[in-house]
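Narrative summary of target 7.
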Amino acid sequence: MKIPALLTMLLAFIATGHAQQLDSLKYPNGYLYFHTYGAGAPVIVLSGGPGNSCLQQEEVAIELGKKYRAILPEQRGTGLSIPVPFDSTTITLQSAVEDLHRLLQHLHLKQAIFYGHSWGAMLAMSFAAQYPDKVRALVLVNPGYYKFSPDLLTTHVNNLRSHLGTTDLALWDSLGKTIATGKGTATDSARYNRTIRLGYIYNKSLIDSFMTKIYAAKPNGTMQELMVSDLNRAHYDLSKNLFHYKGPVSIIAGAQDALAFYTYELKVIRPAIQLYWIQESGHFPMFEQRTAFNKQLWSIMAAWP
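Modeled conformation, tokenized:
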């Protein structure tokens, strides 16, 4: 269902300043909103999180829109796509996968290339596992977990800690204890999040400018909590079903990312994956090394004109 043309233009301008079109489709619990950039073969662009605004990957969507029809969904539970009710019955991995299927049907697309960053890569792979014929190719950037396990979580946290100095580690621990007691302020939460994010980037001096890109709009913490709970409850494990998808998989990753071991783990279960490393970059190569990232992205995309 299209929202009125004038409202579309106003919302697109207010939300992004760049979107060529903001549209929506109805689903059983509300509306799923999505942004479209450019024209050509379709590419679904999935941002990370879960719970982050789609605008975190808008620069990538704009870049892809130069030659492709880049479609950037506001994933259920983020932005304007808030379901009713907004609880564990509506925020699940399966509902997120079905939303992508609905989007393809709404746009009359038989297939699309799926680009996903971090959590977005997890969602893209989950969709490919269930709807392999709908995926022309997977282009993943610093993918997150391929399965949930205590060992992987421990490695994740320890790697982040290894990327921080003693002062930042002390601040992380101190603020964490304060917040856990329920006495933390909004400022404490902001400092805590900023400190953790230091572990995700290579050039620490750029943390504040990157924070404005990472949080291009306010994330939805409720969606994140609900989705993580569902992934735990469902024993999320792509090694059990990713083999259903037989198409190409390419991964671009920051060589200094604390989460790079997830990429290696994926390579173990999917040896044919093509890996491309970006030096002097952590979890967000599209921000830290934009020129090198775009060059590698276009090199990969050249295989699917």
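The chain has a mean pLDDT of 92.
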